[in-house]
Design a protein that fits this description.
478 residues; alpha/beta; Aldehyde Dehydrogenase, Chain A, domain 1; seven-stranded mixed sheet
Length: 478
């Protein structure tokens, strides 16, 4: 079966050029998807930016709650497992990315569950004090003589990555919540979901959908990229550090931007949590889920599991239990179909550790027989003296015994690279030490891949950094 998927979304007011789209076929097994990429140039992007600025007037005059209610309705549609558009998107995204259909559906569920009305308004209240500040002046708590209002940019630009299916809609939500239009460039690695999501918005609220433009251009088309960068008021970009640095170097000086680059997550389990029983069983299942979700391709995924020695359950015993839990998790969320280059990288790393073990290092492969299969299921290895760095991914669990939190902290990279840590068996003072060390999110095992809209992504406010505040003094201070 062959599906033709349009990767672009153009508002009603935009007349696309007559040039036919560029068709890229993707085949996986018996399935084939033909991706239709738009052929737009600099003039088209300039026209798109101008049109989006005009369309944004609709957002500016609409109550933020009404906007959020439409976004909530869209989330409800995408959470309906029987909706034809969801079923079709899951199939196509699975073919293109290699993620299992179960994992794609799980990713959509996770993103949309945190996109409901209470979370949308809640994050605005958290960061702005009162979401109604986007509609007009509101009193500032604790200062009777002061009112404030928040004004978003006319146009937010997004550059998206492909590591998590369905993630790009988050930028659209944040833009719309501050009453900004949005122009997004999808990734060639996963260009499907955002255009499908835009079509859902169009069915619910055509005027709102007219404030969204979804497109693509080749990475080396710097002229079209320049039209985009010169046309937006705030850039939100995802990707590798090298790619983001290159974009930053080509952006106009002074363009406000939010960069979401490479980050590392890890787990630390203190010996206080290593007592046999139901709580430890749940902890192991949680760690297995953290390694499983998105096949370890999200920045939130753990790249090492630091396990304190001296507990009733040893790091090695935990590694054995984890390998079994990972197999259980793979039954409901199957491993993705890895590319040849990914398999080669994993094989190279595996052989390196086998050599290190042969040379006498205390390294144990808990699941060496699994790694040799064509599409390797989870790989668990007990290592020693490992600093935090990326694994080959695809459910590679490196279990590292440590003497305590100080030992684990000594293995961490600079603070700007750290992101999420799953922790157990720690005091509040220990958690505060990790926060001061640069970790931007702490959670129990099993929640690493489940951040809500409320999370300050990469330690940054997500909506308040988009707005400009205007304060009104209603009387002289007392």
């Amino acid at each position: 079966m062959t599906d033709l998927i349009d990767t672009a979304w153009f508002p009603r007011w935009f007349t696309p050029p007559s040039s036919p789209p560029h068709i890229v076929p993707v085949t996986r097994g018996q399935d084939r998807v033909d991706l239709a990429f738009p052929t737009l140039g600099p003039v088209d992007l300039e026209r798109a930016c101008a049109g989006l600025r005009d369309a944004q007037r609709y957002l500016a005059g609409r109550p933020v709650r009404a906007i959020a209610e439409t976004l909530d309705a869209a989330a409800a549609i995408w959470l309906d497992a029987m909706r034809p558009e969801r079923i079709a998107a899951i199939h196509a995204i699975s073919v293109v990315t290699g993620f299992s259909p179960a994992m794609v559906g799980h990713a959509i569920d996770l993103e949309q569950r945190s996109s409901r009305l209470p979370d949308l308004l809640g994050v605005l209240d958290r960061e702005l004090g009162d979401h109604r500040a986007l509609d007009g002046f509101v009193p500032v708590r604790g200062r009777e003589s002061l009112r404030t209002t928040a004004v978003g940019p006319a146009l937010v630009g997004g550059i998206f990555s492909a590591n998590i299916p369905a993630l790009p809609h988050l930028t659209v939500l944040r833009a719309f919540l501050v009453k900004s239009a949005c122009l997004g460039r999808v990734s060639r690695g996963e260009p499907i979901f955002l255009a499908a999501y835009a079509r859902t918005l169009a069915a619910l609220d055509p005027d709102l959908a007219d404030c969204l433009f979804v497109t693509w251009w080749p990475p080396d088309d710097h002229a079209t990229e320049a039209a985009f960068l010169n046309g937006v008021d705030h850039l939100i970009a995802y990707g590798g550090d090298v790619a983001l640095a290159a974009i930053e170097g080509r952006a106009p000086p002074g363009l406000p931007a939010t960069w979401h680059g490479h980050r590392l997550g890890f787990a630390f389990i203190g010996k206080a949590a290593l007592e046999p029983g139901p709580a430890l069983d749940a902890l192991v299942r949680g760690l297995a889920y953290d390694v499983t979700v998105f096949d370890q391709h999200a920045c939130l995924a753990p790249q090492a599991l630091y396990i304190e020695t001296g507990g009733t359950v040893s790091p090695e015993a935990l590694a054995v239990a984890l390998s079994a839990a990972l197999l259980d998790a793979a039954r409901t969320l199957p491993v993705r179909h890895a590319s040849a280059s990914d398999l080669a990288q994993r094989r190279s790393v595996y052989e390196t550790y086998r050599l290190r073990a042969a040379l006498g290092e205390p390294i144990r492969d808990i699941s060496p027989e699994w790694v040799a299969s064509p599409q390797p299921p989870p790989w668990v290895a007990l290592l020693s003296a490992e600093a935090l760095r990326p694994t080959p991914g695809d459910r590679t669990a490196w279990v590292v015994p440590v003497d305590g939190l100080d030992d684990a902290i000594a293995r961490l990279p600079p603070s700007g690279v750290l992101q999420c840590a799953a922790v157990a068996g720690l005091s509040d003072d220990d958690r505060l030490r990790l926060a001061r060390r640069g970790v931007t999110r702490l959670c129990p095992p099993g929640l690493m891949g489940l951040p809500s809209m409320w999370w300050a992504h990469d330690g940054q406010p997500c909506v308040s950094r988009l707005v400009r505040l205007c304060d009104e003094e209603t009387s002289a201070p007392g």
